[in-house]
Specification:
mainly alpha
């Protein structure tokens, strides 16, 4: 556990240095956060619809470019960094999903062989755009619950990390997490 705490404090220290303008800190930071960013990206992509073409490394690199461009962020700690990274990955994926939905000529259509008449039922999959819209609606009702979903679902943060980031108790995070999941489930069913 001490190694995890050491790594976490190293990330926090480097983030603060980077935020203060030390470009070399970014070079030291990348190897420490890269695998966790890949894990986050992989989790996001696992929930995507079949046939999407974005690879884990592509999503990490696209998010990384957006992170490096963040000049006005005063990094608080490791959890803050991963929360922002998760938010950027979410935006990238939602934007791509919306573009696919808008695609003309066969957007969303499944290829069908005319020589083999079969009934094709699309695989049930996670609708990121619908989830994003429901999460935005939840944010309009309760910003903290929506932030908890974003941090836990998209950011992969633990209950304790989420509590630390939001400056609330772990019990509050768990209660809001359960309520938000139930609300989102109901919103997505309708």
């Amino acid at each position: 556990m001490a190694t995890s705490r050491t790594a976490s404090s190293d990330v926090t220290r480097l983030l603060i240095r980077w935020g203060d303008g030390d470009a070399l800190a970014l070079d030291e930071l990348v190897p420490l956060v890269y695998e966790q960013l890949r894990t986050l990206a992989h989790q996001h992509l696992r929930r995507e619809r079949p046939g999407q073409t974005l690879q884990t490394t592509d999503l990490v690199h696209e998010a990384y470019l957006k992170l490096v461009d963040q000049r006005r962020v005063r990094w608080q700690n490791r959890a803050h960094f991963y929360a922002i990274a998760a938010q950027m990955m979410r935006r990238i994926l939602v934007d791509r999903a919306r573009m696919r939905k808008r695609a003309k000529r066969g957007g969303g259509a499944l290829p069908v062989s005319l020589s083999q008449p079969t009934l094709i039922a699309p695989e049930p999959s996670f609708d990121l755009v619908a989830f994003d819209e429901a999460l935005e609606e939840l944010a309009g009702l309760d910003q903290r619950k929506a932030k908890i979903v974003e941090l836990r679902f998209f950011g992969g943060l633990s209950v304790d990390e989420t509590a630390e980031f939001l400056d609330v108790s772990a019990v509050t995070v768990m209660r809001d997490w359960r309520t938000a999941k139930a609300w989102l489930h109901k919103a997505l069913e309708s």
